[in-house]
Amino acid sequence: MILDFPGGARPTERTRFGKQNTLTVDSCSAVCLRADDDAEAIARVGATVLRGGLLGRNGETPVYASIAGSFRGILEIEGNRYFVVMNGGETGEERIHSPETRAITQMTADDVIESAKKFAIVDSRSGVPLWKMLESAKKGCRRLVVDCTESDPLSAINYRLCIERTRSLVGGAKVLLHATGALKCVFAAEHYRHAAFAAISEYADDEKIFALAQLDEKYPYGDNALMYALYVQELKKGETALDRGVFIVAPETAIALYEAMLYGMPQLDRFITVCGDGVRKGGNMRVPRGITLHDLIGLCGGLEDKHFLIENSLLSGSPISGALSDGTRALVAAKPLKRLRVPCISCGRCAEVCPVRLLPSEILALDGRDILKHCISCGACEYICPSGIPLLGLIKKAASRKEEA
Amino acid sequence: MARIQTAPYVHTQRTSLSRGYEWLAALCPILVWSIYMFGARVVTLCLIGGGLSLGLDYIVQRFVFKMKRGARLDMMSLVYGILAVFSMPVAVALYLPIISAILVVIAKNARIIRAHRLFNPFVFSAAVLGICFKSQMTCFTRPFAYFSPFTVSLDPKLVEGYRVISPLQFMADGSVYEDGVMAQLYGFASGCIGEIAVAAMILSLIWLCIRREADWRGPVAMLAPILLLSLVFPSSDAESNYYAYSVILSGAIFFLSVFATNESCTVPQTKNGRYIFGAACGIIIFLLRKAGGGFEWGYAVVLVLNAVSPFIEMLTKPKLATKKNGKAKVKK
User: How many structural domains does chain B have?
Assistant: First the structure.
């Protein structure tokens, strides 16, 4: 059965990279790892660090060098703070932690949380450190959902991970089931990803614990959409899936946790798809965490003229610059749209695609209170509007005007 | 560096302007059938009505609303112009489509709240012409009586020679059309140019539904109450089911159910609103026919409901997902 959720847009384009293996990129000129306000450097500025070497801490979360090179300290670039490592031809790897030798049944939830913390595992759906999410899950969790849907129809990285790293994926899911106390794990992906379902069902063969969910091909798949599609539950604004006892992670997170515990190496790489018409040589890639976009785009043969990079989704993503962030699963090259702009024809399509069942065209009238209060900025209404009305832009403008007032 | 805009960075290829082509394609079966039934004069009427609507609307968009290049030529005005012609008999004078085009453009650009038009353009045009030129608008000629496509006003004696009573006029007299329901379904009955081609209209509706330009629920919501009420309260001596089928196949009922309930700017945006709109049209038309005796109520009822559709929309606003009671938990 194909599971559906209310609203959502169905972009007509599909990825070109579904059959392309993930390429590993291990060389780049620099990495910029995000430093929080409470970040502190431990490595000496100017010191040579090896891949896997400790650079410092973001609060309690350690930060490791994802490439070997010279540590330049915590620098402010374009308004953001980063741990910066420059590569001048250095190579080598440092293994600070030893692999986990205990069986999963011998570990407690706190042990898994500690592992997630020391290996600096981050959830690529949200960009939040996994240990913090697991701490929150302590209050009660009944279901684990591995969200294998793509952030954008042009992306294929989650699909490739499901096929290429199935063992790690299912192993990671088992660890997370143990850590969260969830009773069942659901792997959710778009219904046409048959190879992914086949691969997962081969490893996750215990039907009492694992389930596969085939989802309709609609975007964006946020927590709201997943919760409705899987459990027919609707989240209030500000409410999370965890508040309803559902722990949602990306497949990359489960894989990273499993492999980190198995090999004793922190999460030093990220998996992404670089796609879109503006990229000359896109594809699925394993890149060092914090790789600069300059390096990454250089590896992809550069960007076409007038194009810029969008993080995660063309529907609801935002332009990205600087370095790859921890919450990025896809980079899509886009160019400014030339939209037709004619008066609203009241076709009601914006209402049909709204996942929270608003009437987005009401923003054109005076009565837009509900919209400002409940819109989740998914962009589906603006995508579908045949009159080219920038509905999401108008909603955001109205919201900012309201805030100023 | 290119100018950065906000999300979304992708847009559907189906625009308001491309919508006009879908509707034009939908009108083709009706047009072809009408030409077969009534001859080349149908082409002249459609060219005048549709072409003039398109041209006048272009002038309005360019000089009044100052629309950008590329957004001025709206094929929907051509569609409305042709639909307005479809609700005329073939024997009307050639100046009637000119007047209808002007009325179509006026109604198309008269908006009240947000996107809502006050009146459906082609229904407005047909209703006004029905009042002002009643004799011409109710002068139906028998099928296959082909008139000259270039004569501005046909000779009244010639027209009178071919004049017949339409199925709707039969019903107004308390009887039913004698040539059978199938003749009405296939479009062999006399009547307005486009209103007789019921089978072709079904094809048009299927096309529009496939292309997601129309919703079958609106027509069903309008036709179902009329059918049911006609079955329960027949107004003639004929069998009740025969009478009921004749009611929905005669006059403008089917035409309005397909094209008026799917004209997005004059019906509620919400699905439930569209059900209510369609059902209200059907019930009121039936009641007025029953109580008022006259049978030409379809256009008037649609216009009244067009005016109240913003209110129907407000009443049928979907319940917000985020406002629902959220105490449910995932089952063990």
Answer: 1
